[in-house]
Amino acid sequence: MIQNDMNPKVAVVSFPWKSYAPYKFLSDLLKILEPISDKIVLIDGNTDRINITSEKVEVRDIGMSMHHLKNIKLRFHSAILWITKCVLVQFKTSLELIKAKKEVDVVIFYVAYPYYLLPLITAKTFRKKTVEVITRSKPNSSLSKILRLQDPLLFRLLDGISPESKELTRELCLEKYKNKLLPEGARFIDVSRYTAKKTLNERENVVGFIGRLRKEKGVVEFVEAIPLVARENKDVEILIGGSGDLLGWVKEKCKRIENGNNIKITITGFISEEVIPECLNELKLLILPTAHAEGLPTIILEAMACGTPVLATPIGAIQDVIKDGETGFILEDNSPACIAENVMRALEHPDLERIVENARALVEREFTYEAAVERYKKILEHMELGGSK
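Now predict its structure.
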């Protein structure tokens, strides 16, 4: 049980993903927990990627790193190897939890889904309070639907469930666990770095996609929408930023589109975190036509903070921050025709300045560092009171 006269000691358990994005999230989470925890034990792999600025943080690296299963060529032997490694990751994570059993009160599972069943059982065995911060929405792939079969067991074992945003409660049917639901575990945006350095009037008509160049992110549909956009507005330019397995296809396809449609397309490849604010300040519109089971994509909040209008599909927590015509624009679907039509609708909107002002105000009100600390403080307080509302 958490001691009432001091801050709790927290273990943060994540899955050792090969991709870099989760480690930005973990770095932010550690910053949030630092002022409201007496100690933080971080259990993960690839921990050299995490920015640790507090002496309160003790790192326990399990020495493993893994791709998502959908990135593996599904040959029998490779699938068996992946499953074996996945079990080994959970086993090694559980051993670290056992070693830390006298040092922690609460175990937070963050970007660990759906591979944390053994560590969860271990934490419960040693009577630790457990909470998962939900960063995903309704599954839309066969693999995700299969993995989701363990959700009833996970949610039954957990003491607390913290959806990243309210909309995820509805999408994942979490109302049935209402006694375990906690305040939203959204992170924060550094509004001093992510700010509007150019007004919309100072920007060219640059429409951008920034994200992983993978099919589920909607980059294929975005690229196929470019010729349709070019027919409607010859002044529009395109920027595509990011890396992924479709980078080669994107380059080849865009070269043909440029030659046939007289439209300028810039493909940057990977964009480092340091230059994303400057990149967003060059855009007149950011598009996220994702079909992925998103939680709350950081790039959306970063764009809103930079005064860049956002056009996105209504997936997961996106619906909580993007209200069509108020704080951004919503796509009915992510077909190329729909994307092109809505690009022109957004660029020609008569009150675009008001929309970006509303979006910036929302970020400043709900997604600052101070607001995130208050959210997580309430989460830990609920754990102290027994893990229920």
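The two ends are 17 Å apart (CA to CA).
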